[in-house]
Amino acid sequence: MEIDELERLIRLLKDEALSEITLWEGDRRITVRQATPRPSDQATQGKAPDEARDTGAFTVNAPLVGTFHRRPSPDAAPFVGEGDLVRSGDTLCLIEAMKVMNEIQAEKPGRVERILAEDGQTVDYGQALFRIAAP
Fold first, then answer.
1. Gyration radius of the chain's alpha carbons
2. pTM above 0.70?
3. Which of left, alpha, beta for 122 (phi over 0: left; psi -120 to 50: alpha)?
4. Which of 64, 123, 124, 132 is nearest to 92 (CA)?
5. Of 11, 32, 40, 133, which has the fewest beta carbons less than 10 angstroms from its beta carbon?
6. What is the 3-state secondary structure (H, E, C) of the chain?
7. Which domains are present in the chain?
8. What's the 3-state SS for 120-133?
9. What is the pLDDT of residues 22-78, one digit of tens each?
């Protein structure tokens, strides 16, 4: 692939507001990903600093790209649901990346306000997964 073609892909990515483009040429595959602002930064934009701090709520973001799983297996109950109380270290979900299941745990205690990703959905690095309110 020539540099001009790569630049064209990057422009297309930005112009169409896409997060990723994959191009196959024979047996070669090239993927171009656009970095997105962290959802937690977007959530506090436009709010007064004190207002953003006073709520005590926080967002759990995806630490890697992969497939979001709410349950340990298809026939099991979800790790957490909206309204559930969680403690530090509780497993919130799994993100599957390259056939490896990565546990995503609560860093702080709180109550799950919203689950922001769908089971089986591909999530990007930094994408908001859960909104958790202070206990």
1. 18
2. no
3. beta
4. 132
5. 11
6. CCHHHHHHHHHHHHHCCCCEEEEEECCEEEEEECCCCCHHHHHHCCCCHHHHHHCCCEEEECCCCEEEECCCCCCCCCCCCCCCEECCCCEEEEEEECCEEEEEECCCCEEEEEECCCCCCEECCCCEEEEEECC
7. 1-34 (no CATH), 37-133 (2.40.50.100)
8. CCEECCCCEEEEEE
9. 777 777 777 777 665 545 444 444 444 444 455 688 999 999 999 999 999 999 999
Amino acid, single-letter form, for residue 128: A
Lookup result for tokens 């599957």: 96
Report residue 41: phi and psi, to 5°: -70, -40
Residue appearing with tokens 């860093």: 107
Most confident range (mean pLDDT) of 4-8, 47-51, 93-97 is 93-97
Tell me which residue of 54, 58, 53 sits closest to 40, measured CA to CA.
Answer: 58
